[in-house]
Design a protein that fits this description.
The protein has about 400 residues and is an alpha+beta fold. The chain has 13 helices and 7 strands. The protein folds into 2 domains: about 220 residues, Rhopdopsin 7-helix transmembrane proteins (Up-down Bundle), CATH 1.20.1070; about 150 residues, Reverse transcriptase/Diguanylate cyclase domain (Alpha-Beta Plaits, 2-Layer Sandwich).
Length: about 400
């Protein structure tokens, strides 16, 4: 059974047009600029290929050249859509460079060099496909392992695009019937698969970003931009496990802004919110980038530092001094910006709950001692139950010596 390449081209353009309209619709509805870029690129590409397929024999040389240039601009838009999706600016020169190169090549080549012109056009599209894959590859995130289709699809398209044309140049340099060969048929089928596959990849990327955004929103405090109690606990669990495996101690802090209720009563809740945001900035700037911090209550904050208790006390003093020196003045007068801090440290594997409980006890000692001070827990946390169970389970596993069968 033979397949007519022109018919397959029309099928590919219809599929691309429908998918482009869908992408454009969702892009406008969800206000996602990258989807608008992708949708417009699909519509432009579908229109240029459809017109060229239906009226290639009746179009003049200038119109045919313009349609091919529009198709190359559409390929450039697909590349720029991947840039926009990752928060980068569109590359406007690169968007039209492929079309300019194509027009220049056609203008300088002899009319009978149709195979060479086809090869140059396919090469330009393949370059855009490689740039799209490179743009996605440059986004080195934890979820990159799930993004392999986003890289494989454009690369496969570039390979499938170049294969029939290169084979035609190498094997049939003067074969006029090459345009109707099996390679062109395979390429037209690949166009359909690429159109559908690319949209699948696009929605996979958009869905992944939406899930990540919802997870981030669920773990962040909207006022201060810090981790909330849930996000702080989850992040601390990972850090504690990492430090425990390396045998390093950890230190926890609890911060409580002094007389915060009186600040709200005297200056109003908007002023209180500004104080909370100010203190959040002081904490983030006063700690290292490897330290974790979050807002776990109204005016209560916490931090986890992968360091010893002595180093944690020094960091806490740095935060306390920076907040006390803020010098905030409102219409009602100066605002006292002091904080009481409790610090507790423990050996490798100490649970977060134990550290926070000990730091909370030290915090109350700081409050009773006159506030605006740092107190360290007098006793180390005693409960290492989770870590002891984990290490004991590993220790109980029998070690089988070579050549000796296990009796279990």
């Amino acid at each position: 059974m033979s397949l007519d390449p022109s018919t397959l081209y029309l099928v590919a353009t219809m599929v691309a047009a429908m998918l482009g309209a869908m992408l454009l619709f969702f892009g406008k509805r969800e206000n996602i600029p990258a989807l608008k870029w992708w949708g417009t690129a699909y519509l432009l590409g579908a229109a240029s290929v459809a017109l060229w397929t239906l009226a290639a024999n009746t179009l003049g040389e200038g119109l045919s050249l313009a349609l091919n240039a529009v198709g190359l601009v559409a390929c450039g838009m697909v590349w720029n859509a991947s840039r926009v999706f990752h928060g980068r600016k569109p590359n406007w020169p690169g968007l039209v460079l492929g079309a300019i190169v194509w027009i220049a090549a056609v203008a300088t080549l002899a009319p009978e060099a149709s195979a060479l012109r086809m090869t140059i056009g396919a090469g330009i599209v393949a370059v855009y496909a490689a740039l799209t894959a490179a743009e996605l590859w440059s986004e080195r995130r934890r979820t990159l392992q799930k993004r392999w289709p986003a890289i494989v699809v454009p690369l496969s398209h570039g390979f499938a695009l170049m294969l029939p044309i290169l084979l035609g140049d190498l094997l049939h340099p003067r074969d006029a019937a090459f345009s109707g060969s099996i390679w062109v048929t395979i390429f037209s089928i690949e166009l359909v698969l690429y159109a559908v596959g690319t949209v699948f990849v696009i929605f996979m990327l958009v869905s992944e970003r939406a899930v990540t955004a919802h997870k981030t929103a669920a773990s962040m405090d909207p006022l201060t931009g810090m981790l909330n109690r849930r996000g702080f606990a989850e992040a601390c669990a990972r850090v504690i496990d990492r430090e425990a495996n390396a045998g390093r101690p950890v230190t926890a802090m609890i911060f409580d802004i002094d007389h915060f209720k009186s600040i709200n009563d005297r200056f109003g809740h908007p002023a209180g919110d500004e104080i909370l945001k100010l203190f959040a900035a002081v904490v983030v700037n006063g700690l290292r980038i490897t330290d974790l911090s979050g807002r776990i209550g109204g005016e209560e904050f916490a931090a986890l530092l992968p360091c010893s208790l002595e180093e944690g006390v020094i960091a806490a003093e740095r935060v306390r001094e920076a907040f006390a020196d803020s010098g905030i003045v409102d219409e009602g007068g100066p605002i006292d910006t002091t904080v009481s801090i409790g610090v507790a440290g423990g050996p490798a594997g100490t649970e977060l709950e134990v550290l926070l409980a000990a730091a909370d006890t030290a915090l109350y000692q700081a409050k009773r001692g006159g506030r605006n001070r740092v107190e360290a827990a007098e006793e180390l946390p005693l409960s290492l139950e989770n870590w002891r169970r984990k290490t004991a389970g590993i220790a109980r596993q029998p070690r089988q010596q070579p050549g000796i069968p296990s009796l279990a």
